[in-house]
Structures are given as C-alpha cells and as structure tokens.
Amino acid sequence: MTNKRNERNKTEKETEYKEMRKLGEQAGIEDLMALYGEYQKWMQISMQYLKEMDVKFTFSTTDNTS
Fold first, then answer.
1. Structural domain of 14
2. Considering the domain boundaries, does residue 12 fall inside one?
3. Global pTM exceeds 0.85
C-alpha cells in the first residue's frame, strides 16, 4: 500500500515537473536564462574594464608653479 502511494506521488511529481518544463519552454524561460547569463558576463567584463581604467588624480587648490 505504501509503495503504491509513493510510486503514485513520484509519478505525479514527474508529470507536474514535465508540465512545468513545457510551460517554461513555451514562455521562453530558457531563452531568458541564456540572455541573463550573457548579460552577467558582459556586466562582469564591463566592471573589470572600469576598474582598470579608473584614473587616479589629485585636485589641489594651491598653486605650486612658483
């Protein structure tokens, strides 16, 4: 009895998972996930570039030319 119930629950979960996956694929979830991954990659590259290009300078209000 318990085995049949566990088997039925497992089958129901598998069926539900498959249905959810189909819905996700129809909605373009996989495409959105891939796009988000690309976005994260480009953001990381941009942040690294900005860190390397960060120019340090000193602003002084005194005249040291004399």
1. 2-49
2. yes
3. no
Question: What's the maximum distance between 2 C-alpha atoms anywhere in the chain?
Answer: 98
Count: domains in the chain: 1
Structure tokens at 44: 């990381």
In a domain, 16, yes or no: yes
Arithmetic mean of pLDDT, 5-23: 84
Per-residue pLDDT tens digits for 32-60: 888 899 999 999 999 888 888 776 666 66
Residues 30 and 24: beta-carbon distance below 8 Å: yes
Distance CA 50, CA 61 (A): 27
In a domain, 30, yes or no: yes
